[in-house]
Specification:
single chain; 748 residues; alpha+beta; 40-stranded antiparallel beta sheet; 12 helices; 40 strands; 45% strand
Length: 748
């Protein structure tokens, strides 16, 4: 596909035929006046210099000059051309001050060389052209190529006039507007305006910097594509890496696939595919998505993750799950459901954001990840597709200095490392852009909030058989949910932040930790007070203890359960020997935990107890009695995760029976009690993902681009200009060349 390095067929005269002037013999020179070559008329075209099929098949190169005369080259003859020399072949024009024409297809060009085809201009000091292989090789201390707003500098350059392909080696740098790309070698396809850089490719524009081993870039669409492991950093120095992908500079959109990896200050993200819009900060992640948050000690998984950057809302579906880990303890909390939604709420008087609601907070990606408005509406309606979500119109464009100029405006202590210097530049840049973005982001936020609210209302309408409206949840108060050990002063001091988050998990919610399991149909969590609400047939287990009720409210702190409140006909049961179950019932039940381990449970109102007494030692225990107790309130104290003491309060009424003396009319199962061991989740039923190890240390070790090729070329350019041995040209072809082309039948 790519042209190989052309071998010069030189001046050896092996290609000089006896009839060297047979096709293009100049007219007789009288008084050394200007001589021009015979002209063969070809089909006229209406565009810029274009070659017709007939021209492409020509077996000679058209030419003209002010003076044409034969010269001896060894034992052969050639033609010396002087003054306003023009060659024309395959629609390409070559001009120079003088040339040697060895035969109808081969010539050397000297001084002020220009090769022009369509909008492409190549400048050099010398060039040789081989018409047999349609290739010109250009020589100069620096070879310059210009195509409208794009400029290429390199050391070695060749151009195929038929295939319209340029090839450079020895290092080259291309600039276009704010975009720059450098590489060891590369190809330029002038007909499509595609640049392909190969080897040590480094790119930059005002929004990102990038390094790879192979990148293609289209000068018209301004879309960059890569096909090997590549690394891209935004202005916050957050990295996105993948094996394949593309970046649309004009639309500010990324599409990366095949082993995608993202690293931010606190998070790592893996996925098969990511669609990302930098302006709206909306993102769609597909396939084997894994999000690791070090600050929240949590991870999220799914095969479909969508994130709205403006409001900070997210959706996880297609086998989503989350886990919460404690670096100081070996145990991990796992949770899954059919879908999970996270909403960010702006509150003027919000309590501080607690990290205890890890299942909600940990799902919110870095501020550099987001999703589209139409996507959330359609997704929550259940009829979205990738096109809906990825098609995000660019809403705002924030102008900023390019990375090239930042160094001139920032004063940084020399002792800072290169990475620290980059970070300081990024910080300064962010501060400069914040004020300009504030009003536009506010307007976009209000628009998205309205759409999310409408979409959420539609979703709840479709699921009204499984949801309990938020308005019907028990009203929050410190007296009802704050344990005795958490003082009012501590909570009052926490009320300082203006942002809170809400998490909703729908359908088949399952939670597992080695000492705690739970199931329910739906779950809502709020970071503002670190509470979880489970509803529609919720059940919780702790060791052999099971608690059921219509509604469960859980308070957490520092990612651990502190208190659980059960309302709506709550019943607690515990397995005694696989056949008998202790049972407790009341109006409400409240369980208290210490470091995540239950240590007390209070039953308030109409307390009822069915209790089986045991005897024997630890190796041979058996049930020897049955007790029934009715009273106002009951307290259970636990030791080593088992009931150690029971306190009945309020005139308890009880009866105790030996097992063989239990009356036939005495029920042994409280109304509503069902032992649901088959619903108790296991780790394998909750979490089926393979946890990828952290790759932070490796990706942080990847060096940022420092653009050595561009630096060297800029130094050489400055030195050559100052010495007067090279000029940074941008001149057009001569008037004589334009007239000659018109005489050949071409319109320019």
């Amino acid at each position: 596909m790519f042209s190989k390095k052309t071998i010069l067929l030189g001046c050896s005269m092996l290609f000089v035929a006896a009839g060297i002037f047979a096709q293009r013999t100049p007219a007789s020179s009288q008084n050394n006046s200007t001589q021009t070559s015979n002209i063969q008329t070809v089909q006229q075209v209406d565009s810029n210099v274009q070659s017709t099929p007939a021209e492409q098949e020509k077996q000679f190169v058209d030419y003209r000059a002010d003076l044409i005369k034969p010269v001896k080259v060894g034992d052969s003859s050639a033609v010396n051309l002087l003054g306003h020399v023009v060659f024309f072949h395959n629609g390409a024009v070559i001009t120079c001050d003088s040339a040697v024409r060895y035969n109808s297809m081969m010539m050397d060009c000297f001084n002020n060389v220009i090769i022009n085809k369509d909008s492409t201009f190549i400048y050099g000091d010398k060039a040789d052209y081989n018409g047999y292989i349609n290739t010109a090789r250009v020589y100069a201390p620096l070879v310059k190529t210009v195509d409208r707003d794009a400029v290429l500098y390199t050391y070695n350059f060749s151009f195929n006039t038929k295939d319209d392909v340029g090839y450079y080696t020895g290092g080259g740098t291309i600039t276009q507007k704010d975009n720059m790309i450098e590489s060891d070698k590369g190809y330029y396809y002038t007909s499509t305006r595609d640049i392909v850089g190969v080897g040590n490719v480094e790119m930059r524009n005002k929004d990102y910097i990038m390094k790879s081993d192979s990148v293609s870039y289209n000068l018209d669409s301004e879309i960059a594509k890569f096909y090997t492991r590549s690394y891209i950093w935004n202005d916050n120095l957050e990295m996105l890496s993948a094996l394949k992908g593309e970046y649309d500079t004009k639309a500010d959109k990324y599409f990366f696939h095949d082993s995608v990896y993202i690293i931010t200050t606190n998070q790592e993200v893996w996925a098969d595919t990511i669609h990302y819009n930098t302006q709206s900060e909306d993102a769609l992640l597909l396939g084997n998505v894994q999000i690791r948050d070090e600050e929240q000690h949590a991870m999220a998984f799914g095969d479909y993750v969508q994130y709205w950057g403006g409001p900070g809302n997210a959706l996880l579906t297609r086998n989503p799950s989350v886990l919460n880990f404690d670096p100081q303890e070996p145990d991990t909390l796992y949770m899954r459901s059919d879908s999970m939604l996270i909403f960010t709420i702006q509150r003027s008087d919000s309590a501080a954001l607690s990290d205890s609601l890890a299942m909600a907070d940990s799902l919110v990606l870095a501020d550099s990840v987001a999703m589209s408005e139409s996507g959330v509406e359609n997704m929550l309606k259940g009829n979205s597709n990738v096109a809906d979500i990825v098609s995000v119109d660019k809403e705002i464009k924030v102008e900023s200095d390019s990375i090239l100029n930042i160094e001139e405006t920032i004063s940084v202590e020399p002792k800072l490392s290169r990475r620290e210097l980059k970070q300081e530049r990024a910080r300064q840049k962010r501060l400069a852009r914040q004020q300009a973005r504030a009003e536009k982001i506010k307007a976009r936020q209000e628009k998205r909030d309205r759409m999310v609210a409408e979409a959420m209302a539609q979703f709840e309408k479709q699921h009204n058989d499984t949801l309990i409206p938020i308005d019907s949840l028990p009203e929050y108060s410190e007296e009802s949910v704050i344990p005795d050990s958490i003082t009012t002063t501590e909570n009052a001091a926490a009320k300082t932040d203006s942002v809170s988050r809400e998490m909703r998990a729908y359908n088949n919610v399952r939670i597992y930790r080695s000492d705690f399991q739970a199931v329910c149909d739906s779950l809502v969590g709020f970071s503002v007070d670190s509470t979880l609400y489970m509803y529609k047939d919720p059940v919780m287990w702790n060791e052999n203890n099971q608690v059921k009720s219509q509604f469960v409210q859980v308070l957490t702190k520092n990612q651990k359960i502190e208190r659980a409140l059960f309302t709506g006909e709550p019943i607690m049961g515990s397995d005694v020997d696989g056949m008998h179950y202790n049972q407790v019932k009341g109006k409400t039940m409240e369980a208290f935990f210490n470091s995540g381990v239950i240590h007390k449970m209070d039953v308030v109102g109409n307390g009822q107890t069915y209790y089986y007494m045991e005897d024997g030692d630890s190796t041979d225990r058996y049930v020897n009695g049955f007790a029934t107790v009715e009273c106002a309130n009951i307290t259970f104290l636990f030791a080593e995760k088992k009931i150690d003491k029971i306190i009945w309060r309020g005139n308890p009424n009880y009866a105790i029976y030996p097992m063989d003396k239990i009356p036939a009319d005495q029920a042994q199962v409280l109304p509503g009690f069902v032992w649901e061991a088959d619903r108790k989740p296991t780790k394998s039923s909750v979490f089926t993902r393979v946890i990828l190890p952290s790759e932070r240390s490796y990706y942080q070790s990847v060096e940022l681009p420092d653009y050595p090729i561009t630096g060297k070329i800029n130094e050489d350019k400055k030195r050559l200009i100052e010495s007067g041995t090279w000029f940074d040209r941008r001149d057009d072809i001569s008037d004589e060349a334009k007239e000659f082309i018109r005489e050949l039948g071409y319109i320019r």
